[in-house]
Specification:
By secondary structure, the protein is of the alpha+beta class. It has 38 helices and 28 strands. The model is unreliable at 726-735 (pLDDT under 50).
């Protein structure tokens, strides 16, 4: 074997290089997948530093939680560092140039946070400390934010962010005024961090660069009026710890560390009772069940109450302004006197009955049996306050003593409880101070906010229902066998033992583990680039087979001689296979080095030419030995199979034929299948095309692609028919046509081989042209109601949620939007949606989303409809949006997603469920009842607003907006809203631009496929040169005879070139024409950006490379000695 390998080294070298190319491409594609996953993993570790867990709170809680955790003995066994921090969303404005960056990340940190990042352990705190002579506090930003602001060290920046509120802003007592919602902080830039390490810090799994601003923790606490409070704690685990249930250990440590204050509760003694209240005014429903079960276990007497502000009480034509009303049940006897004026105990109230205290009854001149109308505010649609009035029958008059005189029945309403007189009231809801009388001031002086009326608890909870709770307090007396203090201590202990962090608005996240799990990627880049390199792999494999076949044919005499002298067929085949296996094995081994180079080239391309596909230039080459081994074995198996098939064909040739140099069996020219296939495919294509046109489905890509594929099959079958005809006559127009005729006649000599060449080129061209021409851009068609833009000109987001209606002049006025601006006149409609922040679920995110962004769709959009849908339930095609409001199973929520995101990123489909946890830690399933088609919602999942507020009640306000306006005025409208709502970080984008942002990823992938597919086609055309060389070897006698009859060598070369050029040209034409029919709907659609030049250049390069390969083959064929062949003839 060694001598044979050395003797035929040229042939073996060609096979070795072909095997190396196949291995390099296949294994290189696997390495690209490894590199993407490895780079995402590296990015996760880099952006989190030593942070393993994050404790996130919806409210601001004690900063000392971090220190208390560190002192817990069991906690110290598993964890070693804790760092409190404040995390906010906001926007930044350059104080001098007014350059703005919306939706940035604002972090309040100190040295404890810096210690979690090795490179910033000492330097960050130094730069955050205010320097001597520095006018404003320090600000550290990363390079991405610096580039957007075009700022330098020493420049001043204004940060805007939301002011936290204990009281939910969407409740009646929530303050929605801009002055109370937005805070502004002026700072001086002291350091610009690079976009790596600490500069890339973020909890969201995304590969794009965040825009980070770091402020000293005390400075941000002071700006927020939240002294010694934070909303996040970061935790680092011990590296030597191997506890698999570490998160459970963390939760247990939280139970031992937390206080009732951390849960948002307060337990105090008042009038010989215990009162359980909340600084949020309303006790969270998630905590209420835990409280009730604890009280039941202790058998402590208790009752619930709900106190609410009333605008007025009216009876007998008299009006009593601005009172508080308490809803309470029938009271247990342990809670003192609650008696009528005659001294008898107050009876139970029916749903339509009310008690007045003696002061209110006297003021209204009301007697039992009279009708008392209660007027009050409730929160209506779009967070707007609505006035409602409910009539009650006066059941009795309560004496102001005992419980009825308890001022603490009324919680500390903002803008009310802290003032000395009613004229100084400044509540968050509108009031008319002119209605306040001197007698009202007198009541305030004596009784403050003591309730003037009482109704049944169930009635109050029904009238004043709120998703934030329906209790303002729980009163309890001492439990049996305990005094009041012991009862208080026991209840606190029970509550802390039973609570789950999510019940109190906390989220415990294993951020590093989640990030590493998500780094597996939403897209399998190994499979993707194997697909992109498919033609390269196929071409290289076929090239190996052709080169091996060419070498075997040149050694036909040797194989025939071995068989003639008695060597068994199996022995000859085994010997050839072993020899080829050694060559292929060495080639595959050499190809591993090429794989690293090929993968490196692709990674470089993804960082530069094709960076739009991944969003950021962060990829680094990762060489995984397992992928190298897998690629080697897979390539070796494919090449071995190809070689075995080649040898199998040679086994059919008898030894005498091999001794005479014959290496092919006679091909049959029966055209039985070709005419049937031709007419069947052509007829099917015609019928399908006519059906499509008659049905009006001219925009159906599937039908037209099927038509194109059928036309390609018909074209190939027709070409096969033409090749199989035995008699042909050609009309000679020019002298050169004689050579062309001879070349074309020679293609008939081996019709199977000729058809293989044509089919390979045609199929490759069909796919490359069809895919490469599928690029799109978006413009005015986004304003069509049934398009991806839904008829909206702009889509906007705000860093700070809005609570006012942009459609109403009053709402715009509250937000400070200048009504005189002419651009506002063109705002046809604004749809405001609730937004749950999360991970991007579109192709823009390479990570696998685990907590995607969720949008709450309001009734206005459900009624309006619009947008194009890919799939929906039967019968809902006209407007699928109402499906979001349909009834479903208790834990199942109807959802709508974009088809591309659901199918390719979430790897789900129509009717399937996406599982996630709601705000309370309960698992819910989002079931896709409809899928949008290439819409602006590719980054989100949509559910109804009703389900949104049910499962995510803590998300207050509206942060996502769809703005309908004429295209010509859209830009002016965007500028107006961004200017007037700059404090809210309002950022408006044309829907066409947002759609283009998604489409650019697909267009980039198409460019990658076109490039690599073109390279594969170029490599495939080299195989045509090998086919030509085989033909020359087989036709040595024929060529020698032609030379003997006087044909010049140059003429024979031209004939051979025409023969190969005809095959290439035919394949290009058949594939390209069929592809144009397949993409006809796409070409007819608006927003199409067909890269005609690059496609034409690719096809021209294919044709030119084919001709070049043919020239090389002709050149080598000229060196074949023809005299021995002529003697043989």
């Amino acid at each position: 074997m060694r001598r044979s390998l050395i003797h035929y080294w040229r042939l073996h070298l060609a096979v070795l290089l072909g095997a190396a190319v196949a291995t390099a491409v296949l294994t290189g594609a696997l390495l690209v997948g490894d590199s993407v996953r490895g780079s995402l993993r590296d990015l996760t570790l880099e952006r989190l530093g030593r942070i393993d867990y994050a404790l996130l709170s919806e409210r601001f809680v004690r900063e000392n939680i971090a220190e208390d955790l560190s002192r817990d003995d069991d906690f110290e066994l598993e964890f070693e560092n804790t760092a409190p921090a404040i995390l906010l969303n906001g926007n930044a404005t350059h104080a001098r140039t007014r350059a703005r960056a919306a939706r940035i990340n604002i972090h309040g940190v100190d040295h404890r946070f810096a210690s979690l990042f090795n490179e910033a352990r000492d330097s960050l705190q130094i730069h955050l400390d205010k320097k001597s002579g520095q006018l404003f506090p320090s600000l550290v930003i990363n390079a991405s934010l610096q580039q957007e602001l075009n700022a330098q060290v020493g420049d001043q920046v204004l940060l805007n962010f939301e002011q936290p509120s204990d009281i939910h802003r969407e409740s009646v007592l929530g303050d929605k005024r801009s002055i109370e919602v937005v805070r502004t902080l002026r700072l001086t830039i002291t350091k610009i961090l690079p976009d790596r390490g600490l500069g890339r810090f973020g909890l969201l799994t995304q590969q794009t660069f965040p825009r980070n601003a770091f402020v000293a923790l005390p400075i941000l606490q002071d700006a927020l009026d939240e002294e010694d409070k934070t909303n996040a704690v970061f935790i680092a685990q011990r590296t030597d710890s191997e506890n698999a249930s570490r998160e459970h250990a963390l939760r247990q440590a939280l139970r031992r560390t937390f206080s009732l204050e951390d849960l948002g509760l307060a337990l105090t003694q008042t009038r010989g009772q215990l009162a359980l209240t909340s600084p949020q005014l309303l006790i969270a429903p998630a905590l209420q069940a835990t409280i009730d079960s604890s009280l039941a276990e202790m058998r402590a007497p208790n009752f619930h109450l709900y106190t609410y502000p009333a605008n007025s009480l009216t009876a007998n034509g008299n009006l009593l302004p601005y009172s508080t009303i308490t809803a309470l049940p029938t009271l247990p006897e342990e809670f003192g006197d609650f008696r009528l004026m005659d001294g008898s105990p107050a009876p139970a109230l029916a749903a339509d009955e009310i008690f007045l205290n003696d002061w209110a009854a006297e003021d209204l001149q009301a007697s039992p049996g009279d009708t008392v109308a209660v007027s009050y505010y409730v929160v209506g649609p779009g967070e707007q306050l609505v006035t409602r009035t409910t009539p009650f029958r006066l059941q009795g008059v309560i004496k102001i003593e005992g419980l009825a005189a308890d001022r603490d029945l009324t919680p500390e309403f903002p803008g009310i409880h802290e003032v000395d007189n009613m004229q100084a009231w400044d509540p968050p809801f509108p009031i008319d101070l002119k209605l306040i009388r001197p007698k009202d001031e007198a009541y305030w002086d004596e009784y403050r906010a003591t309730p003037k009326a009482f109704i049944a608890l169930a009635t109050g909870q029904r009238l004043w229902q709120s998703r934030f709770g329906t209790l303002t307090a729980i009163r309890l007396a001492a439990a049996p066998g305990m005094d009041l203090q012991t009862t208080q201590n026991q209840l606190e202990e029970n509550l802390l033992k039973r609570f789950q962090p999510e019940q109190a608005g906390f989220a415990v996240q294993a951020v590093k583990a989640q990030g590493l799990a998500a780094s597996s990627g939403a897209t399998d880049f190994s499979g993707l680039f194997i697909g992109f390199s498919f033609f390269l792999i196929v071409s290289a494999t076929l090239l190996v087979g052709m080169l091996f076949r060419l070498g075997i044919e040149q050694r036909a005499n040797e194989l025939g001689l071995l068989r003639a002298v008695g060597f068994p067929q199996k022995s000859v085949t085994r010997r050839a296979l072993q020899e080829a296996g050694v060559v292929a094995g060495l080639g595959c081994l050499l190809g591993l080095g090429g794989a690293i180079a090929y993968a490196g080239l692709l990674i470089t391309g993804l960082r530069t030419w094709w960076v739009e596909a991944i969003g950021a230039a962060f990829l680094q080459l990762h060489v995984n030995p397992i992928s190298l081994i897998a690629g080697y074995l897979l390539a070796m198996a494919i090449i071995a199979l190809t070689i075995w098939l080649t040898l199998r064909q040679l086994r059919k040739i008898p030894a005498p034929a091999l001794l005479h140099g014959v290496t092919t069996s006679e091909e049959t020219k029966s055209g039985r299948l070709a005419p049937i296939l031709f007419w069947a495919a052509l007829g099917s294509a015609a019928v399908l095309l006519i059906f499509t046109l008659l049905q009006g489905s001219v925009q159906s890509p599937v039908l037209f692609f099927a038509c194109g594929a059928l036309l390609l099959i018909a074209g190939l079958a027709g070409m096969s028919l033409w090749l199989c005809r035995q008699e042909r006559r050609y009309r000679r127009i020019l002298p050169i046509t004689r050579l062309l005729e001879m070349g074309m006649r020679n293609t008939v000599r081996r019709p199977g081989r000729s058809m293989l060449s044509i089919a390979l080129v045609a199929c490759a061209c069909f796919v490359i042209v069809a895919v490469g021409a599928s690029r799109r851009e978006f413009g005015a068609e986004a304003l069509l109601k049934n398009s991806g833009g839904g008829g909206f000109a702009l889509v906007a987001e705000s860093a700070v949620p809005l609570h006012q209606d942009l459609n109403a002049a009053s709402g715009r006025s509250e937000l400070g939007i200048a009504e005189e601006d002419s651009a506002l006149a063109h705002l046809t409609q604004a749809i405001a949606m609730r937004l749950l922040p999360g991970e991007d679920a579109s192709c823009l995110n390479l990570y696998r989303p685990q907590k995607p962004r969720i949008l709450g769709v309001p009734a206005a959009q459900i009624e309006r409809g619009g947008f194009a849908f890919q799939e929906t339930l039967e019968g809902a095609a006209a407007n699928p949006w109402p499906l979001l409001e349909q009834e479903s199973e208790p834990d199942v929520i109807p959802a709508i997603g974009d088809y591309n995101s659901v199918r390719w990123i979430l790897h789900l489909g129509f009717g399937q469920d996406f599982a996630m946890k709601n705000e309370f830690g309960e698992e819910i399933k989002l079931r896709f009842v409809a899928l949008l088609q290439s819409s602006i919602f590719q980054s989100e999942i949509l559910i109804s607003e009703e389900n949104f507020v049910k499962h995510f009640p803590g998300q207050s306000g509206y942060s996502y907006f769809l703005l309908e306006a004429p295209l010509a005025q859209a830009q002016a409208l965007a500028q107006t809203l961004e200017r007037d709502l700059s404090d809210y970080g309002f950022d408006a984008t044309p829907t066409s631009e947002k759609l283009a942002g998604f489409q650019v990823v697909e267009n980039t992938y198409l460019s990658v496929f076109q490039t690599l597919g073109g390279l594969g086609l170029l490599l495939g055309t080299l195989g045509l040169g090998i086919i030509l060389l085989r033909n020359v070897i087989e036709r040595r006698g024929e060529l020698a005879t032609l030379r003997a009859f006087g044909f010049r060598e140059a003429t024979l070369r031209h004939m051979l070139l025409f023969e190969n050029g005809f095959l290439i040209f035919t394949g290009l034409v058949l594939g390209s024409l069929s592809a144009l029919l397949a993409i006809a709907p796409h070409l007819a659609a608006s927003g199409v950006q067909v890269p005609w030049f690059s496609l034409a250049l690719t096809l021209l390069a294919v044709f030119a490379s084919g001709i070049f390969a043919s020239l090389v083959a002709v050149h080598f064929s000229a060196r074949i000695p023809l005299l021995p062949a002529l003697k043989a003839e």
